[in-house]
Amino acid sequence: KGRANYVCHYHLERNLKEGRLGAREEAAHLHAIARFAERTRTGDRAELAGVPETSPAWSLAISTRENCLGQSCPEQERCFVMAARRAALAAEVVVVNHHLLFADIALREEGTAELLPACNTVIIDEAHQLPDTATTFFGDSITSGQLLDLARDARVALATGAPDMPDLAILANGLEKAARELRLAAGRAPGRYPGAAFLAEAGFERALKDSRNALEALAVGLEAAAGRDEGLERCHERAQQAMGRLDRWTGADSAERVRWVEVFGQSLALHDSPLSVADAFRRQVEGRPRAWIFTSATLSVGGDFSHYLQALGLEGAQTGCWGSPFDYASHARVYVPRGLPLPGSGDHTLAVVEAALPLVRAAGGAAFLLFTTLRAMRLAHDRIAQAFAGAAQGFPLLVQGEAPRNELLERFRRLGNAVLLASASFWEGVDVRGEALKLVVIDKLPFAPPDDPVMQERLKAIARAGRNAFMEYQLPQAVIALKQGAGRLIRDSEDRGVLMIGDPRLLSKAYGRRMLASLPPMGLTRDEEEALRFLRGTGPG
Asked: Which of 159, 162, 206 is nearest to 181 (CA)?
């Protein structure tokens, strides 16, 4: 796993010693982590159930790529990350996530280090996710959270390594203030926005300049103290690197890249992403003689891999499709209700919910309701909660965000009659077998938001080249997403259920029929009674 999954003795002990903790609960969590660090063999934070994964205490107890001291760390002998890497070096098979694979690729490209052992075969499962992950790692970004972490780490390092230089802590406080002001200057709801829209705003441009000045002031101050302590030296390097990222983000436009801003509830990120990762990824594949195998249920569109091959620069690769072992024709139905309004109309979400409610009751709960936006998910939750309130037949209602994903899934499986409402993160990588899941509802065809800044620029680039951006990019992306959502329904040879898609375009548009043809060979119905009989087990199949 990545280093953020392991307790770091060095940062944990420094932050405990510094004692600048927030709420009482945060302090209790940090002390619980300290006790865990003394008894655990792996240091894997997933083993400590008593501290929520969202607790701010974790940021004080782990290292990041930015603040890890590496070979210079005095705790290197006890380092949990190094122990995990030594185990990986001795293994014949190493399992990692996509992010760690790309973190290793990025370090090798820089020539600074490597995280993973050399290998002769790379097998990438869920490979449909790879283009997005590659876009992140071949891009550049700086976040307000990174600036806040730097300010905090600098204060801690100064308190222990340079207590005779109290003025430097004032500079760290100045960076913290500037980072918070930068988020406030964004002044928008959480989402993804084009960078140009922010750079045109005087308030945001001023906040950017203030952050840059605060970074430079801290970097200059730390330079005088850096030789005293490894932690101070690392903070000095981080301040310089952050200045470079800010300078690149505010620099000249490039036809090959797109600048955009991601706004979160309490932070923001400035991204500079490549429009294409094909050349960069091709270099990785061709860089050394080894096999690369990409596998997923959703790499092709109607058996055609060209969209995926172009995205990753893999033209000429050998491809193959194999059918599912499941009997979809007998065990599943696609139901497209009649009379639903088109997506985009104000009453679409509620109409989908009304059409789904009889199916939920017929299935005895055991339903996933998957939405393309969080707003639609929340609107649906309110209506379903109202429909079940005081009813003789109510079902446990679970909603994405009320608990960690794995915990929600475990509760869903255990209850057996629950209704789970979710958005993007539950569309894939979720495996519920048996009677606990008999109905999957997808509110509309999952086209990516047209205002996404990276997508906007990619569509423009395809159009400039004289090609059809919708057919070449938007439609294949939506087909892959729909197949992932539909794939939640049948997970075992004995599973049986209904996939309801609340979007009339699936049948009324040529591209919709193409999407339907890409789904597993399930029987199609528009008749509610037929769908209800199938869920009750009284229909054919």
From this structure: 206
